[in-house]
Amino acid sequence: MKRAYNTNFYYIVLVIVYFLLAIFLPANWITEKTYHLTASEYHILLVIFMLPVLIFWYAAFYGGHKLKEYAVLVKETAGGTEYWQIARGSLWLAWGIAIPSVLGLAINALVNAHPNFNNWSIILINYLDLGFSIISFSLISNGTKGLREKAHLRISNRRLKALIGILVCLSVLFCFLVFRQFQLNNLFSTANPYKLPLLLVMLSIVIPYLYAWFLGLFAAHEMYLLAKNAHGLFYQNALRQLVGGLGCIISGSIALQYLSSSVPGHNYLLLNGKLLAYFLMLILTAGGFMLIAVSASQLKKLEEI
Amino acid sequence: MVGKKDTALYAQVVQVTRVYFGPTAERFITRQIQNHLHKLPQNLSSPDLKKLIDWIHIAVSLLTENTEIVDEYMLQLERLTHKAQVQGGKASAQRS
Q: Domain coordinates of chain B in residue numbers?
């Protein structure tokens, strides 16, 4: 009961804060100018775009807490600690999408009033996104690794090679997207969307992101192996849904982070392809969290019935 | 000797259940025995099986609407009942 209260409480607080910020913070002049909007039209537009984001947050917190409830139930059994880590990682993913959005709105208003803060705001949001990514994927990965080891499963060479291949492609494309925004003749210039020199971006953004994404992909694969080799018809069905859900939230989150980190630089509202891609990825991730909620409820039922 | 046989019966029920419940099978059967038969799992005896199967049927029907799976599971448990009855009959014949 207490946990359900906490989920709703955090969600309602986030919604209220986000809503208040969207309504009362000054309108962004770039968006106003681009679309010839008045301040009130800008706020209405912002609230309309908030709605799918709020639905996504609800799905994320609901899914994360359902998994946490299951993890609490099986805490004393073999694999309980690992499920607990996966649940915590999923919740960190949910927070990792919600908090930068809320902070982004507030910082954007600050930058509106004090343009000098623009560079700092971009750097801060970038590192915040990265921090959440590393924490959540590390937790999920620790959990799936533990479960895989307890089930005495090994990843075959062929699958490992395929995973490495995916990571190499992901890395090369990511580096290409990042580097094309730099003036490569001046490596120390901060005149780029990251507002940091190239070397620092490489060491403190690109490499940590790739590390986190690899952990995420590896974790998704480990869960797939677990579900594939699990015994028990009902248990395997529930686990398959959990794997599908985790796969969706991991790939959706990686795609969201890919998008925000490879095309960074502004927090204001622009109706472009990036926004559309953002919503598509949110839908994928929200679907994943809903699948996690369904599977966690089924797993919980197996332990309670 | 009787205690050993009954533990074996519990183990057989768990084994059948593992096909459907996987690693949660033992916990599931233990819960059914403790909550509905008000017994310890090791005290499960063949006369309890029918009642246990009824409770398992109710529980599993809440998990799935696929009657084929439920019927198959129940059939396997009923085979255990039959086997336990035959073994029980042999044991009493030997005693007499």
A: 2-91
